[in-house]
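Progress against Task 2.4 (sequence-to-structure conversion) is shown through the following example record, which the project officer requested during the mid-term review.
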Amino acid sequence: MPVFDKILIANRGEIALRVIRAAREMGIKSVAVHSTADVDAMHVRMADESVCIGPPSSTDSYLSVPALVAACEITGAQAIHPGYGFLSENAKFVQVLEDHEIAFIGPTAEHIRIMGDKITAKDTMKKLGVPCVPGSVGGVPDLDAALKVGAEIGYPVIIKATAGGGGKGMKVAQSAEDMETAFRTARAEGKLNFGNDEVYIEKYLTTPRHIEIQVFGDGKGGAVHLGERDCSLQRRHQKVFEEAPGPEIDPKTRAKIGKVCADAIAGINYTGAGTIEFLYENDEFYFIEMNTRLQVEHPVTEAIFGVDLVREQIRVAQGLPMSFTQDDLEVQGHAIEIRINAEKLPNFTPCPGTISQYHAPGGLGVRMDSALYDGYSIPPYYDSLIGKLIVHGRDRPEALARLSRALGELIVDGIDTTVPLFHALLQEPDILAGTYNIHWLERWLDENMD
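C-alpha cells generated for the chain above:
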C-alpha cells in the first residue's frame, strides 16, 4: 500500500490551493509547479516546495508532461494531483506516470480513455444501465448519414465532436436544412480544438436542466453517490452558477438515479471522484458525459454532505478505503456556488490586470476559494476564473440570502469582473424560484446585456 509523504499539484490558481490545504491537513507535503508568469502566484507561496516548469504558455509549462515528471523526480514527490483542466483527463499522461512509478490521484488511464471518447462513454453507460439521450450509434461519417439520423430521431438535433468539451464542437440543427452547416462546423471545430473531426448526433432537448451526479469509487468494486448538482445556468455551455441539491429533484428521485450511477462505476471498478452528467426533462434523465476528475463545483457537494472530496481522493489513491459509506451520506441544507471571472461585461471579454484591493466575504456558511491577493497581477495566459464564492444555508432561501449578503461584502478592485451579473441574477424571480433551464441564461443575457 503506497503512503504519500509528498504530492505534486499539476495545476495553478484556486484549485492548486485547494489541494495544498487538504494535503497539509493530512500531514502530506506539497509541491507547487509554476510557469514563469506564475512565480508570484499564491499557490507557489503556500506550497512546501515549488518548481518552475517553463514559460507562460500552458503548452510549455502546465501541459508539459516531461517537465512534470522531472519535477516529481527532483522533489521526490510520489504522486500527482491534477486538479481540473490541463492534464486532469489525459490518459497518456496517466500512463506515463504509471511507467515512471508515480501515482496519479484519480482514475486509471483506461477509465479516462473510455469516458474521454463520448461515443465509447455512451455505449459503456448504456451497457451499465444508465439512461442515454436518443441519437446515433457511434460516429457519423458523412452528411448523408447525419441526415438519416436526423430523420430517425426527429429535429432539433445537436451535433457533437467525439473528443469535444467546454462547448466546443457542438452545433444545433433545427431542421434538415440546417444540417449541412451545423455538421461541417462541428467537424471543423473538433479538428481544430481536439485534433479529431469525428462527430455524433443526439436529440436536442428543448427545455432540459443540466443535472450531474457526484460519484466516488474505491477502485475495488465499491462506490457511492453524493447526490446531484444543478448546473443549468450556463453561457456558451460554460457553467456560471451551480447549486445542490437540485431545486427540482426530490429525495426518491435522487436515491434512484444516484444508485444507478453508483452501481455503474462500481461495475467498472472506478477509482476516485467522477461526475456523471445528464440532461433532465419531464422527469427523465439522459446521460451526456462523464467527467473523470474533480469538478470546479465540487464545494457545493462538500457543503451539503460535510465531506472533503480532495482528502478522499488522496486516501483512495493510497489504497485506503473510503471514509464513509452510502448510509453515512445525508443531505444537510442547500449550497450555491458562483464562478467569478476576470471579464468585462457585457461581452465577457477577458480582463487581466493588477488587483489593487481584494477582500473576501466571510461569516457563517460562506467559503471563498480564490488565489487573489492585494497587488497580484492576473496573467493573460490562462482561464479567466479568479474565484468561487460558495454559500451554505439550512434551505435554499437562506442560501440565496447568504449569497446576496456575501456578494455585497466581496471587493475585487483594479479589474472588471462578472460580479455585477450575479447581483442582477439574484433579482430575477426565476432564479429565486429555481425555475430555470439550460437555455434560460443565454436568453436573459440577450435581453439584458446588450
